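Minutes, project check-in
Item: structure for the 349-residue chain
Input as provided by the requester:
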Amino acid sequence: MAIRTQLPLMFLLCCQTCVILFLLWRDMAPNLKQRKRTINDEHTCHYNVTGCGDETVQHQKINRKSKRNSMPQYIDERDLRVILGDKSMCDDVALIHAVFVVHSAVGNYPRREIIRQIFRRDPYYKKYTIRLLFLFGQPHDIKLQDNITQEFRQYGDIIQGVFLDTYHNLTYKAVMGMKWISQNCRNVKYIVKMDDDVIVDLHNFFTHLYNMFRSSDHTIICNAITQPKIFRKGKWGVEKHHLRYYKHYPFSSCSGFAVIMPAAMIPVLYKATLAVPFFWIDDIYLFGMVRRMIPKLELHDSGPMYFDFHGNASLKCIKRAGCKLAFASMSYNKMLYRAWKEKQKHLNN
């Protein structure tokens, strides 16, 4: 009798369990199908990151109903608008040997002053026609904008975009510079992209690098990296759902602290950025993903003879006669000017 009375209860429990399992399966089945589709897509696009759909970096757009939609985002030219910039900077000469485009942060005024001083005092600044440009976006603190406007009026060497000046907008900063140069500086031989913590040795640049590939408009000179490591944490951390299952980017790129590009390629690179899904790490995006869209555009590895990002080691080299370093990253502001003065001692002797 006891068994008979328990049968309806057992039947009810079994029915509830079946319903719960069915509901769980219904929710998980689409995710399993999506996961299989994603894995298949990854195998298909292993060496074609720009066509990897979900595996390219995606941004969340908020629609009018405040719902977040995850979708591939391409660079919008409206986000590249310039609010400060002197369009006549390249108009007064027939040929400019090099434009040094410095990626700077809004608050790094002391570094910009040191770089300006180095360029003004360097004798090679007078031997060649050179232009110096600083790129940055808008400050979080609107009060800083008055200082930036005053700095622009004093020097005229600033290109400022409408985007916020943040690490995740580095690509916008770089592409904005390419667009501006494409439109306003067609009479340039080389474009040198560098960071504001980099010392440039103009003597070594013009002696060893400037004429290295003067017959080629399809070579980017830099400290090249074969399949750079993908960081998941820290300053350069990429979220796990971007390029998942990868430990390295499936292409070569440049260490972006200093890169030399033929100016003839800048308009081509800029147009290619409009066809490649956005990626916020500018070095990976420009010299890896975008570069691969342009036939025959190659990287030439000239580091560590001419490029080095180890500050103290670089300074030791610069102190020695015969050091060929053209670009070296320095850890603090005073080291920039100190390194330049050490180099001038050898040149004067």
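Outcome recorded: The first strand starts at residue 58 and ends at 62.
No further action items on this chain.
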